[in-house]
Design goal:
Elements: H1 9-21, H2 38-45, H3 49-63, H4 75-88, H5 92-99, H6 103-119, H7 121-124, H8 133-144, E1 149-159, E2 179-186, E3 192-200, H9 205-210, H10 213-219, E4 226-228, E5 239-240, H11 251-270, E6 302-304, E7 310-312, H12 325-343
Length: 351
């Protein structure tokens, strides 16, 4: 009979081997976000550890607390909280839960870092760029053989929450949601050389361009070059457009966040930060991953262009374009009725 106070020899040997091969546990300092590897930082903040340290040195004099009263956040924590908010685009309380901070603290930190980044827009965003004009033209010429180009021009709508006040209707764009219309100019290296973030969503792209400082400087002949725009702009001697085919945040804060993100984009490009990973082995035509929509048609999510990038194809049933939905509803009802008749052993010809 085995004694209950003595352990088996096999168990003792297993414990000895387990202690010999056990790795020492490393407890990282959660108050220091830079203690994590670069893969974790890129996934969470879109910057490496060196990039975050550079931002801390850049923004430290503008956002640092003068005292440590009430356990004030360090510069590294404030920068990482703001980067997490910019990278995720989520709610303040979601970022607060991830960073173990209160929602009010997240709001103050994001506002402080946002204004500090906006104050540096004149340093990192310069038209036509920080390089010589001839080098900028040469970079564009290498892409498609188009000469004398110094920038690509376009506008984009940034969705915001419905603002209060008498001018709420001015922020409703042509797609029937509230937004601000942001104009940007970039060069061949994807660096933003000009950004205008102050116009409500109902303002047309062409009006924003005519009211901008870039339009005034180009019309006065300050630069010898042209911009490339889409059909939303009028053709000018300094702005070329294609041939016509014969066939959520408050407005002011959304504008500040847009400029701050433009500054971060240029900082990341200048420091050669890697872009977020896009899975290359995804079967985009697999119905199990991308099922058919309610109308029975396969939603074409994306396709490849000549350069290899993926672009999302616009869905036919967007919020601002529902003209074909009633027709599809009628077709669906007819198909369901015809299937019911076929199950009963009858045949019915659809009109």
């Amino acid at each position: 009979m085995a004694c209950p106070f003595l352990q088996e020899v096999v168990d003792e040997e297993a414990l000895v081997l387990r202690r010999a091969f056990r790795r020492e546990r490393v407890f990282r300092d959660r108050a220091n976000p830079l203690a994590f590897p670069d893969d974790h930082l890129h996934e969470r903040y879109r910057f490496s550890a060196d990039g975050i340290r550079y931002l801390c040195r850049l923004l430290g004099p503008r956002i640092q607390h003068h005292t440590a009263r009430s356990h004030a956040l360090s510069v590294e924590q404030m920068v990482c909280v703001a980067l997490h908010f910019f990278a995720s685009g989520g709610f303040l309380y979601s970022v607060g839960d991830a960073e173990n901070l209160a929602k009010a603290t997240i709001c103050r930190v994001v506002r402080s870092v946002c204004l500090a980044l906006k104050s540096l827009s004149g340093v990192f965003i310069s038209f036509p760029g920080h390089r010589r004009l001839s080098d900028i033209k040469e970079d564009f010429y290498r892409i498609a053989g188009f000469p004398n180009v110094i920038g690509a021009l376009d506008c984009t709508h940034i969705r915001i929450k419905s603002p209060s006040g008498a001018h709420e209707g001015d922020f409703v764009n042509r797609k029937s949601f509230h937004s601000i219309n942001v104009q940007m100019v970039c060069n061949a290296d994807y660096l933003i050389s000009n950004v205008v973030a102050k116009w409500p969503g109902s303002v047309h792209d062409s009006r924003i361009f005519r009211s901008s400082a870039v339009y005034r400087r180009l019309s006065q002949g300050e630069f010898s070059g042209v911009l490339l725009g889409d059909r939303g702009y009028a053709c000018e001697p300094f702005c070329l457009t294609p041939y016509a085919d014969p066939q959520e945040a408050s407005p002011d804060r959304a504008c500040d966040i847009t400029v701050a993100c433009a500054v971060l984009h240029n900082v990341a490009c200048l420091r050669k930060e890697r872009a977020p990973r896009v899975p290359s082995d995804v079967d985009w035509d697999n119905p199990a991953i991308f099922p058919d929509d309610d109308s029975g048609n396969r939603t074409q999510v994306c396709k490849r262009n000549r350069g290899g990038r993926r672009y999302r194809r616009k869905h036919e049933e967007r919020a601002g374009d529902r003209r074909r939905v009633p027709e599809r509803e009628d077709e669906r009802v007819k198909q369901q009725q015809q299937q019911q008749w076929q199950r009963r052993g009858r045949r019915r010809v659809a009109p």
